[in-house]
Amino acid sequence: MCGIMGYVGENAASKIILEGLSKQEYRGYDSAGIALRCPDGIESAKIVGRVSELVRRVEEMPSECASAASGIGHTRWATHGGVTETNAHPHESVDGMVVLVHNGIIENSRDIRSTLESQGVKFSTETDTEAACQLLAVLYKKCDGDALAALSKLTAYLTGAFALVIMIRDRPDEIWCVRKGSPLVTAFDGDACYCASDPTALLGYTHDLFFLEEGEMAALASSGIKFYGFDGKERGKSSIHLNWDSVMADKGHFEHFMRKEIDEQPDVLRLTIDTHTIVTNVAMDKSLTLPKGLMKRVRRVQFVACGTSFYATLVAKDIMESLGSDLDISAEVASEYRYRNVNGGEDTLAIFVSQSGETADTLAAARIAKSMGTHCIAITNVRGSTIDREVDHTLLSMAGPEIGVAATKTFMGQISLLTLLAMSLLKDRGVLSANDEARLIGGLRSLPVSQNAMLEREGEIRALAEKYSDSKGFFFIGRRECVPLTMEGALKLKEIAYLPSEAYAAGEMKHGPIAMLDERLTVVALVPDTDLREKTLSNVEECRARNAPILLLASDGDESARTYADDVIFVPRTEPELFPFIAVIPLQLFAYHTARTLGCDIDMPRNLAKSVTVE
Ligand code: AGP
After folding, report:
1. What is the pTM of this model?
2. Fewest CB atoms within 10 Å of the CB: 30, 301, 438, 531?
């Protein structure tokens, strides 16, 4: 939540910062601001709204500011303090010495504020961030202008999560970065230094990035970067090469990132399969070397994640069960796992799934699991992210940068990697049959063609989205392998079209929710041609009898499904466990076209941020 960009070099900082902010706008977009090192001091501009509005505001600044060679910027997702220009970052200390931007939550900001106010410091915003800003100014003075000493003291005072990027009035050649709990990445391209919340903002300058660790600080100058611990001691640091292409983060000819990312799913799947399989065999061991005998030892597998990533783990859980796993498997949202008295230890393997690798709840859950001696694997899309650095093993999903706030292609990256991981773990355990291995790998290999066939049916799905866009709400129902999909389909509609949508195991409808049904509440039923087809169709009939319009997803060729529904979307056939890999596409397209029909902001839905770095 919140995007930060900083630059110190010889080029026009304003342009670089504004570009960096617009690349990170999906992290938060209720207000934005910039501070530039102008000839007469540090000048700020802030707006309520989008970065495009900030661009206009910067054009009104004196021309010497537009050509300033260093500065910092911020795009905000409000936590403390309303969405106002005053509360937008950067914040400036009352003496004008410190100007900073922040991502995270400073939990003891009230205490700091009341202490400083009692000493006569005047606060001008409602934010938690201002406490850090005013306190740093006081400490800087106390430390006689020693920035490193002041920052060490500041980090000892602050509790909570904070990525801070700081300019100090009388230190014109530097920008300081501080990281605890919220991500921050830095880079030096030989002529200038950069920092950002998200690596995608830096890929146009260099692919060799320095990710700040927990408890680390950095001093950026045009000549290079120095790294320090919170104790003020300098430390060495190696860069990580990120081989993402910067054009991957462009919209291309698509109207929205989300639509482009939906289209990229067959490639994501193909890449994952090519990397982790040999002919009809899983070959995860190339990238995952678990301690010898671990899989024989474990009794328990725990999947932990949030949001769409959590639904991906439900797909994996279902696949493991269908393959005859003898393990005790659970899947849990990280925000609950972290506060429950969960089992753990040497006989437990925990698999944390996070696109960003920065979700606060998932990180906290992973830390708890580690502290119990549980073996921890992460699946993330971002090399160098916090989760990547903290767990025992990481598997990188191969989705490339995802910009749309609604996760699409990263879900595909996750379920494909999770499926292969699940098979590999069961194989190590001697539970996976050769027949199932060949069947599923064969099925996975043929999926990209079927996914492309599904994408070609977009016209039909768009027409249905337009037809049903005036529904007062939706129920997504299905059984077994379809249950995670009902959740994902409902979440996509909620987050980008703001429509009430519920996900229910089809058999549960009659235990309460069916009371809600009438002719204005649409039921989207997922009914592949499996052993559960008839049972699910009975549940569909029950909904139909209550006058609910029925939109059915059925397997290609299942013509009789038409008699149960007002409309049918046909989905190419595949192995039963792999149905989610294809059926998620029409659900994503349905949500996309519904949101488009309703005129919603698809890539940046209201109230959301791509990466949820606060609890
Ligand atoms: C999905 O469309 C959402 N953007 C959200 O549910 C997301 O999946 C969740 O916040 C988890 O994020 P992560 O994968 O980066 O941890």
Report:
1. 0.82
2. 531
